[in-house]
Specification:
Number of domains: 2
Radius of gyration: 21 Å
Bound molecules: zinc ion
Number of helices: 11
Structural class: alpha/beta
Mean pLDDT: 90
Helix content: 25-40%
Order of helices and strands: HHHEEEEEEHEHEEHEHEHHHH
Oligomer: single chain
Largest sheet: 9 strands, mixed
Distance between the termini: 35 Å
């Protein structure tokens, strides 16, 4: 029985839910679907232009407020809000100024906003650690319209924002408060060199030393290369002492496979970048790139909402656990190379080979001979490492290059 089933059962018999964070059984697939559909609709214009991003930011702020979250930027200098935003939501918004123009002598915070970060707070209940912060985040901006065509960005990243809205709802309504504070944040301008999260990390509402864990989700509703993968990739755990163990220890839906990779496999691809650079322990969740990435075909009807639901619960459990733990994961440089990463690679290669074989059986062209060689070779060598049960730094370097080559040429 999963933890959620246990929780629901606890509720049915009128007992306190056992295990797992309070309320996460309330995470609802249909509400996640409705959020993604709305965010990806014409109403928000693909969340690309300044006006459309401003409207999206105001919408998210009003949702955080309606769910009972406190404003994250209250009393913070430079939190001026979107133009014409109602007074009631202004403190949920952080102005993100544009880069300095030549000759503009004004301090950054006084320049007109290029975008807006959005944040709500669940204040911690334990005075000893309530100043600590766990951040759960997703970027809400996307590509807007190009050549008259809407880029809905349903997976990128309405899916991650829907997760944030759902967790805001669950935590905003919960009578149980976490010991540490939890912030739910929507970042603007991720598609423009992570400018929103970079600004936030440079002008945080609380010192970054108090951020005990930063989580961001970017594209959590599809599958890598459209392969039949039940995976959510989790990167960054290698930089937080004990973080992988925290994730392994929380209740999880059985259908979801959490596949670990070192963040150096992909470099800087989302809003964790500025936090990693500031040595804040972090986790990045993504289901990976697919053929509709950054295209008008990234639509809501192609999203696996069951997966979005499962990831939302997982992220909620991890954030809640760290917000209540005795000790929090401390930053560490990369540790020893880990075999679990190689298992992830074997698993992806197996799926690629299976798809290629199915394509060829059906008389369609699969891989080229060279691609097949690359995938098979990588899989076989990776499998040998898994069977041996350990790998060294040289092998990891080789695996990383193979994985990058796979991403570039096969997926
Ligand atoms: Zn994205």
């Amino acid at each position: 029985m999963t933890g959620f089933a246990v929780c629901v059962l606890g509720l049915l018999v009128g007992a306190e839910p056992v295990g797992g964070a309070p309320g996460l059984w309330q995470v609802e697939t249909e509400r996640l679907r409705a959020s993604v559909e709305r965010l990806a609709s014409e109403e928000f214009g693909g969340r690309g232009s300044r006006a459309d991003r401003g409207q999206t930011a105001a919408y998210l702020a009003s949702r955080f407020r309606a769910e009972g979250l406190s404003p994250l930027f209250a009393g913070i200098e430079g939190a001026a809000g979107v133009p014409r935003a109602e007074e009631t939501i202004r403190d949920y918004l952080q102005n993100v100024p544009g880069p300095a123009q030549a000759g503009d002598e004004r301090p950054l915070a006084e320049r007109p906003a290029l975008g807006w970060n959005v944040g709500g707070l669940i204040p911690g209940g334990d005075p000893a650690v309530a100043d600590d912060l766990v951040i759960v985040s997703a970027h809400f901006d996307h590509l807007g319209r190009r050549g008259g065509e809407l880029y809905p960005g349903a997976d990128d990243n309405a899916s991650g924002v829907a997760m944030c809205l759902e967790l805001a709802r669950v935590w905003g309504r919960s009578k149980v408060r976490p010991r540490r504070s939890i912030a739910v944040v929507g970042f603007d301008l991720e598609e423009r060199m992570l400018w929103g999260s970079t600004w936030f990390a440079g002008h945080p509402p609380r010192p970054l030393s108090q951020v005990k864990l930063f989580i961001t989700a970017d594209m959590i509703g599809r599958a890598l290369g459209d392969l039949p993968l039940k995976d959510i990739f989790m990167l960054g755990a290698e930089h937080g002492k004990g973080l992988a163990e925290v994730v392994a220890g929380v209740p999880r839906d059985e259908g979801l496979k959490v596949s670990r990779l070192g963040v150096d496999f992909i470099g800087t691809r989302s809003d964790y970048g500025p936090f990693r650079d500031a040595e804040v322990p972090f986790l990045f969740f993504s289901s990976g790139e697919h053929p509709d990435y950054h295209s008008p075909r990234d639509t809501a009807d192609r999203i696996d909402f069951e997966k979005v639901t499962q990831v939302t619960r997982l992220v909620g459990e991890v954030a809640w656990t760290v917000a209540n733990a005795e000790t929090t994961p401390e930053w560490q440089g990369r540790g020893e190379p880990e075999v679990v990463e190689v298992e992830t690679l074997v698993h992806v290669c197996d799926q690629l080979i299976a798809r290629d074989e199915a394509e060829r059986r059906a008389g369609r062209s699969g891989f080229t001979a060279l691609q097949r060689l690359l995938v098979t070779n990588t899989r076989n060598q990776a499998r040998a490492i898994v069977e041996r049960g350990r790998l060294d730094a040289d092998e990891r370097g080789w695996l990383m290059r193979s994985a990058q080559l796979l991403l570039a040429t096969v997926l």
